[in-house]
Design brief:
FAD/NAD(P)-binding domain, Enolase-like, domain 1, binds flavin-adenine dinucleotide, globular, five-stranded antiparallel beta sheet, Pyr_nuc-diS_OxRdtase, alpha/beta, Pyruvate/2-oxoglutarate dehydrogenase complex, dihydrolipoamide dehydrogenase (E3) component, 26% strand, flavin adenine dinucleotide binding, binds nicotinamide-adenine-dinucleotide, nucleotide-binding
């Protein structure tokens, strides 16, 4: 006999987005059940953003120390993975224990249930023998898992995903990375800087293919300088493992590596959720929503599952919209025009809004401005490590997109995100005073080249 409990809201998945929705609704006084089958906090704190950025920080420290001979004397750099692995365990993940996060949620008044949730009908969710009936509705925030392509021989081998790559306490001598997106590129640079022989296999014509071609060029140049072999336009056709990995490619060549990291994108966790009981397609790639994050009657979806951009800031943004909608508070609806993103390479590659191609494909009358960072005063002063550029895309008298690649690329993009978001007129931007000699002053230089 199934026990049915009446509540206001059930949140399925307490990653970044679900924890934000559940915590805020509970703090607002609603009776909220949050269900999580792994770790409260989700991918970002345990296997994503936080530990990988600790790895990036460590790799960048090594790279900066290696630049000393060009700038300030001599340096001897001896990489050691142990401090990185221990920082990930002790400071980032509590050794993959979510007690702090569970307490954070329950202290706001949320009721926490550890288990796998399935939807059984409108407003109904089951976890084991417990069924919840949610008067206001259900929020789906189940995130993504690594997509594993159907390559002959791959299944059953001890390949890594981002999870094993974050958890490792020792480094392999060599690593093949399948996929040259943000995940593949960030891991590639870090591991290469710690002495691992890294090869990226990217199926499309360039790495970071979603970004500007200039971003791909900079990324390829710096990764190559770090010793990474970047192979583009090739696909793996077969994987074999005995001791190490042997990957056959469709150009007839073979690549070998002690470990293989699969970084070929992410799949939304939507199958086995019971979405068919709501008339939704459980085989769909993403769970589409309207601009209030409503996916169906009494059903909201936030975060990676919506397919609007797999970023922590996107999960938080969508969570805020869903919370306001559930509480009947109104406020702005979803608007993705000024979505910022940063690929944490050295140099960081920040971007916002549309790329030049996206703007042209949208039929806009596009003007483009661009400067190499080394051509700016601060880039010149910076010297070694000053790879990068600033590119601005304008249409209809305002910016619709931009890329800032450089030592502070992730910070520089903030100014341009404001410009795109607030639709600041180009004439207003043109009269702005940019501090000298900052990296962001290059934005003023790029704006002057708009043509
Ligand atoms: C290696 C890596 C690096 C990244 N770096 C960055 C970065 O630098 N910046 C950035 O913005 N983003 C980054 N991301 C992306 C970021 O981690 C995600 O966008 C973010 O975690 C999405 O949050 P979410 O709540 O949608 O999903 P998730 O964090 O995936 O949380 C979903 C939760 O739902 C749970 N769940 C799923 N199904 C069920 C079920 N049926 N019942 C109960 N629980 C369930 C899961 O266990 C999980 O805890 C990175 C991702 C990876 C993999
Ligand atoms: N700094 C950040 O914000 C950050 C960092 C990491 C991840 N993320 C998020 O996670 C998402 C997933 O990252 P990702 O890098 O796994 O995905 P991705 O989709 O960005 O890149 C995957 C790459 O793998 C390639 N690929 C796919 N199948 C292949 C195959 N069989 N052989 C060779 N190449 C193949 C694709 O062409 C693509 O370039 C990102 O889109 C991003 O939203 C963000």
């Amino acid at each position: 006999m199934v026990d049915v409990r009446n509540v206001d809201v059930v949140v399925v998945g307490l990653g970044v987005g679900g924890e934000e929705v559940g915590g805020r609704l509970a703090a607002a006084g609603l009776d909220v059940v949050g269900v999580e089958h792994q770790l409260v906090g989700g991918e970002c704190p345990y296997w994503g953003c936080i530990p990988t950025k600790m790895m990036v920080r460590a790799g960048s420290a090594l790279a900066e120390a290696r630049r000393i001979p060009e700038l300030a004397g001599t340096s001897t750099v001896t990489p050691d993975w142990a401090p990185v692995a221990s920082r990930i365990r002790e400071q980032a993940t509590d050794d993959w224990n979510d007690k702090v996060a569970v307490d954070r949620f329950t202290n706001k008044g949320g009721h926490f249930v550890r288990g796998t949730a399935t939807v059984t009908g409108p407003g109904r969710v089951r976890v084991g023998e417990q069924e919840f009936s949610a008067a206001r509705g259900v929020v789906i925030a189940t995130g993504t898992t690594a997509f594993i392509p159907p390559i002959d021989g791959l299944a059953g081998t001890p390949y890594w995903t981002n999870r094993q790559a974050v958890e490792t306490t020792t480094l392999p001598d060599s690593l093949v990375i399948l996929g040259g997106g943000a995940i593949g590129c960030e891991f590639a640079q870090v591991f290469a800087r710690f002495g691992v022989q890294v090869t990226i296999i990217e199926g499309s014509a360039r790495i970071l293919a979603m970004e500007e071609p200039e971003s791909s060029e900079v990324a390829t140049a710096v990764l190559t300088a770090d010793g990474v072999t970047v192979r583009t336009g090739v696909h793996a056709t077969r994987v074999a493992h005995s001791g190490g990995f042997e990957i056959a490619l469709d150009d007839g060549s073979t690549v070998t590596g002690e470990k293989l990291l699969v970084a070929t994108g992410r799949s939304a966790r939507l199958t086995d959720l019971g979405l068919e009981t709501l008339g939704l397609d459980p085989a769909a790639r993403f769970l589409g929503t309207d601009d209030r994050m409503r996916a169906a009657d009494q059903l909201w979806a936030v975060g990676d599952v919506t397919g609007n951009g797999a970023f922590t800031h996107m999960a938080m943004y969508e969570a805020d919209i869903a919370v306001r909608d559930i509480l009947g508070q109104g406020g702005p609806a979803a608007d993705y025009r000024a979505l910022p993103r940063v690929t944490f390479l050295d140099p960081e590659i920040g971007a916002v809004g549309q790329t030049e191609k996206q703007a042209r494909d949208a039929g806009l009358d596009v003007r483009v401005g661009q400067v190499p960072l080394s051509g700016t005063s601060r880039g010149f002063v910076h010297g070694p490590g000053n790879e990068g550029f600033i590119k601005v895309i304008a249409a209809d008298g305002r910016l619709v997109g931009a890329t800032t690649a450089g030592p502070a690329g992730g910070e520089m993009i903030g100014a341009l995100a404001v410009a795109v978001h607030a639709e600041v007129p180009l004439s207003t931007l043109a009269s702005q005073i940019w501090a000298y000699p900052t990296f962001h002053r290059g934005i003023g230089d790029a704006l002057k080249t708009l043509a």
